[in-house]
Design goal:
Elements lengths: L16 E4 L8 E10 L4 E7 L8 E5 L3 E4 L3 H15 L5 H14 L5 E3 L9 E3 L2 H8 L4 H6 L2 E4 L2 E4 L1 H14 L1 H21 L1 E3 L8 E3 L1 H23 L1 H33 L3 H13 L4 H4 L26
Helix pairs in contact: 2-5, 2-7, 6-7, 8-9
Length: 318
């Protein structure tokens, strides 16, 4: 994420002036390279401090503490300040897990990617802004206005709270995959809360078993808050519509089983004609999406309108 690479990719030469930082958040100091010692695993650099209270002091430091040549100190300090702004905005574990669910299922890596380590953990690197805005259903300007961000190497870097806002917008715009994931997970957890779970040990380790009580406690503490946050992002309307759809499909399956049992019972009672009639009508009149959808038809021509003859009682006159 940073512009400088590892110490093994930097070229230190005695007599050069470099930027030294004791820690990432520490101020930059100008040092003179006196000697460089390299081996297969690490690089040690003998330096002399040029300015400040430690001017003239010599010290042996790891090579990765020398960041860039001193001529690039202003650009480097600005970059580190940008990362520091992103790191000041954080999210909790529930929000982090919910973001992972959304980005894993809805956002391709070539569009945006979460920082999983290093600087600005849980921040978001946006590689394709138009594609992400299409997934969000809104401009990314809203997320930029409320959160810290900066651009680097053609990519937009958002803080973790900015990534949270993006995840919520993407989830609201594309709720179905997330709601299907939640229901599938809760079906598994429901089984675990009734029967417990047994995981096979890896690489010679012993099998691990959990009790139903432990699984339920784990669900309440860690999983349920994530699922509730995801449902909140999806929106009440989407959640209700999805649950009604699932309920309708389940009820349809239940009624199919009942009518199949009734038809079999009629056949066993030697009423096969009635059973065949019910079975045929059940399949013929089944309500499916293309029958529910109202399809406008063209108006009929006068010659196409069927003639309906209505018999009337003849009136007799005198």
């Amino acid at each position: 994420m940073e512009s400088n690479s590892g110490a093994d990719e930097l070229s230190f030469c005695p007599g050069e002036y470099w930027v030294y930082r004791l820690r990432d958040e520490a101020p930059s100091e100008q040092v003179l390279v006196l000697d460089v010692t390299r081996d297969k695993r690490k690089v040690r650099v003998e330096i002399e401090f040029v300015d400040g209270v430690g001017a003239g002091q010599k010290q042996s430091v790891p090579g990765n503490r020398l960041r860039v040549p001193w001529a690039d100190v202003d650009t480097f300090d600005q970059l580190m300040a940008n990362w520091q702004r992103l790191e000041e905005e954080g999210i909790d574990e529930v929000e982090e897990f919910a973001c992972d669910v959304v980005y894993e299922r809805l956002v391709p890596d070539d569009v945006a990617e979460v920082f999983t380590g290093g600087r600005a953990r849980n921040g978001l690197e946006v590689k394709d802004i138009p594609a992400l805005e299409l997934l969000m259903g809104r401009p990314i300007f809203d997320a930029k206005e409320r959160n810290a961000w900066f651009e680097l190497n053609g990519a937009l870097n958002l803080s973790s709270t900015g990534g949270l806002d993006v995840a919520a917008a993407v989830c609201q715009e594309n709720p179905d995959p997330i709601l299907e994931y939640i229901m599938a997970e809760e079906a598994k957890i429901r089984h675990y809360c009734k029967h417990g779970r047994k995981d096979e040990g890896r690489r010679g380790q012993e099998d691990r078993s959990t009790s139903p009580e432990w699984e339920y406690h784990y669900y309440l503490k860690y999983i349920k808050p994530v699922h509730e946050l995801l449902r909140q992002w999806c929106g009440y309307r989407a959640v209700t519509a999805h649950e009604r759809l699932v309920a309708a499909e389940a009820e349809t399956r239940r009624l199919d089983v009942l009518i199949a049992q009734a038809i079999d019972a009629l056949r066993d009672s030697h009423k096969s004609m009635l059973a065949d009639h019910l079975e045929e009508e059940h399949e013929r009149e089944r309500i499916v999406p293309h029958r529910v959808r109202p399809v406008p038809d063209r108006p009929l021509e006068p010659s196409e309108i069927p003639v309906i003859r209505v018999p009337t009682r003849r009136q007799w006159g005198w």
